[in-house]
Design goal:
Length: about 130
């Protein structure tokens, strides 16, 4: 059996999410609550939590995604303050529900994604 992996969701005609894969895109309960929002077409890009929670800004989209993923990683860590991401599933839920499953998100496969963090947690590679 191969190691669980990240799959990029597609809107291509005829494409189907592989059987057994779990969507971790928004608006599922597994979606990254930190999102990247362009300020203007082409940037800069804000990283926000919820509707009004400004976190950071970056001139590049890839860097903004990295910031969002790192904030997600820190926010769901068991040592994070309880109110960091109060509505997000717990570490134990991630391990139990996602272990051994492929995870699907819209993020490009060549860039960081919160699904990578979920894969690490679910399959025992998180630090």
């Amino acid at each position: 059996m191969s190691a669980p992996k990240r799959i990029q969701l597609r809107r291509t005609a005829g494409w189907r999410k592989p059987e057994g894969a779990v969507s971790v895109a928004r608006p599922t309960k597994w979606g990254n609550p930190f999102r990247v929002a362009p300020v203007h077409a082409g940037g800069p890009f804000d990283v926000v939590l919820g509707e009004d929670g400004f976190v950071a800004q970056s001139t590049g989209l890839a860097v903004a995604r990295e910031i969002a993923v790192e904030h997600f990683r820190r926010g769901i860590h068991p040592a994070a303050p309880k109110d960091s991401l109060p509505d997000y599933p717990l570490y134990a839920d991630i391990e139990r529900e996602l272990r051994g499953r492929d995870l699907a998100c819209w993020c490009p496969l060549d860039q960081q994604c919160h699904a990578d963090v979920l894969l690490e947690i679910a399959n025992g590679a998180a630090s």
